[in-house]
Every structure is written in structure tokens, then in C-alpha cells.
Specification:
By secondary structure, this protein is α+β, with helices and mostly antiparallel strands. The protein is built from eight helices and 22 strands. The chain folds into four domains: 112 residues, 2-Layer Sandwich (Alpha-Beta Plaits), CATH 3.30.70; 87 residues, Glycinamide Ribonucleotide Synthetase, Chain A, domain 4, CATH 3.90.600.20; 116 residues, OB fold (Dihydrolipoamide Acetyltransferase, E2P), CATH 2.40.50; 41 residues, no CATH class. Bound molecules: zinc ion. Zinc ion binds next to loops.
Length: 378
Amino acid sequence: MGLGGKEKIKIGEINGKDVFSSVELQEDVNELEYKKIKKIVKETVEEHAKVEDENTNPGFSVLKRQPDFEVYKKAVTQVVLLDEITSLLNKLDADFEGYKNGRGLIGATSAVAWSSDLDKTYELISYRQKKRWNTKRDVDTESVKTMDKSCRTTFDNYDYQNKHNRVVPNSPCPILYGIRGDDVEELMQAVSIVRSEPVDSWLIFETNQGSDDHLQKKNIEDIRLYRSVIVEGAVIHNPYTLDGGHVIFTIKDSTGTIDCAAYEPTKEFRDIIRELSIGDVVEVYGGLRENPLTVNIEKINIQYLKDVVEKIENPICPKCGKHMKSKGKDQGFKCKICGIKSDKPKLRQRQRMIRTGFYEVPVCARRHLSKPLKRVSK
Ligand code: ZN
């Protein structure tokens, strides 16, 4: 069940009062309401933004008309400059303000331009009582596991392998936990299962999380830094592990070659990547990092596994029946007793430890935008 339509659905509680989904969006917000909204937004940002943190550069924009979806699409897939956004906002006669370096305006405006028409998920966010802010959160891990197992349309709740409770944030923000999912009713059920300190307020949001909206299918020659891509190619260098545990391999298509990486934080996912071999064909999903340009893999679709043969033993001398000796790398073999030569070792097909199909990084390493495999069929 979703939030659209005429039906009035409870989507939260703020300060003890029920909040309902808007039955229909108002076409015209009158001037008085518009000013009121702007005042609330400005006061809220200025009261609560942690501007003393060097990475906090908030911004807000209040608009009477939604910017084109393309504004969102560009921001989620590539690089948008602040100038582009401020000139757009001026053109749309918007009220806006950027604080410090002002880049928060980019995210704020792009978010307003988002539309849930293509794909969307929901996140139920619960907030802490103010007196508990900046203290350790109390959310019972076992109950999160129970919730994860029984609410099948929720995702990215718990990483069993790495024992990581993903619904609880690490930052000192007022959020207690966030549960992501595809069904509003099941999110409400999920909350009733999770045991925690008292919840002050909660609200269900429509989001682009788990949508893969950031990814674009590209040929290798068209791949640029800071983009996120889906790229298909054949493995041309076998995977190797760097100091620090990052696993790298190289793929090639008709337009070029590029490195792909399963970085150390992707944990057991690297064991899959290490099994790839020259000649395999893969489709890699991920964002671009530099030096050299490398795809940071979020998931991979292994399309073809090449037969790999390996040497099991040196050839046997047809005369004396003993194993021949190697004459050196690629130099062939020779029987020490009879002097008979051969260049053919005994080979066998190596059993591949992976199968074709999709593999994804574990929950603990997943980006918010990455579509989990459990959503891929949707
Ligand atoms: Zn021999």
C-alpha cells in the first residue's frame, strides 16, 4: 500500500498529534500560507542546523512551482554547481537561502524537483525525546532482527554477517531509527515490533532510497568522475588484492578499459569478486572514484563465466612412464631419463566457485540509493 490517492492515511505522530497524508496537493497556496511556510522553514533551519560543523552547509528553497524533474535527475546522476541552482531559483521567483558555502541549496532544490512517479520507497523515521539527544541510543538489536525477518517488504535493516544494525544512525542527530520499505502498512507493523527508548515523534516519508536512480548505463569511454554507472565488459585482468584489502580487476568493452573495485568495507562481497577470471563477462553497478578512474562496485551481474583450465601435473613420459620435468616457464617439459620432450601438461577444467547472476555488497556497506536485490524484480 502506498500514500497516493484520495484515501486519508495516518503517516505519523508529532507531539502527540496524528498526522495524515495530504488528500490532494493544493494547486494554489495563498500568499499568507506561503509566507507562513517560509517563516517556519527559516526558523527551523536557523535554530537547529549545526553550522559549527565544517560539513554542515544548510540551505532551503520555498517554491510556488515544482522545478523540472531533470533538476533532480542531474543532481542524482552527476555534478551540479551552486550557480546553476541559484539562477534557476531566481528564474522561478523562489524564496531561498544558503548558509556558509550554500551547497545545501543544491540538495534542497533537487529534492523539491523529485517526483515519485518512476520509483519510490518509504522510510519511517522515529525521533528521540529532546532530553536524550547526544546520548547513546537504546534500540534493541534482537527486536530489529525479528522485525527484519517478519516484515518482508522492508530492507537494509540488519547485516547478519557483520552484525551491523543499519536502522540506527551513527550521527548525533535526533533520529532514533529509520526503517525503509515498500509498504506503508508494513512499516507501521515494523515499528510495533522494534523495542526501544520512548519515541517522541514519528513520520513516514516518500524517498528515492533503494531506487538506483543515480545509475546510468554507459560505454567505458563515456564514463566520468563522480558519475554512477552500469557498465558491461569482459574481465581482462584477474582480480588482485591491494594492501588494505581492496580487490581490483579490469574490464574492457569495445570503447576502452576501466578498473573496478570491491573496497575493504564491502567485506565478504570481495570473496565473490576474487573468483572472477579473465574472459568472464560482467555488468558492474557503481560510482566513480579517481586515481585512477575506478568503479566502486555496489552490485554486479555476472553474465558469463568462461571455462578455466588449470595444469594439474606435468606430462608423463610415453617411454619410461615417469613425470617429465619443466624446462622453465613456457619452455615445455622434458624427461630427464629418456630426453623425450612435450609441451602439453595435463589440464583440467577448474570448478568455478561462483555462478552467473546478481551479487550485491552487504547491508553494512550499502549506499542509500542502491537498489537492494530484494527490490530488483519490482
Ligand atoms: Zn622417459
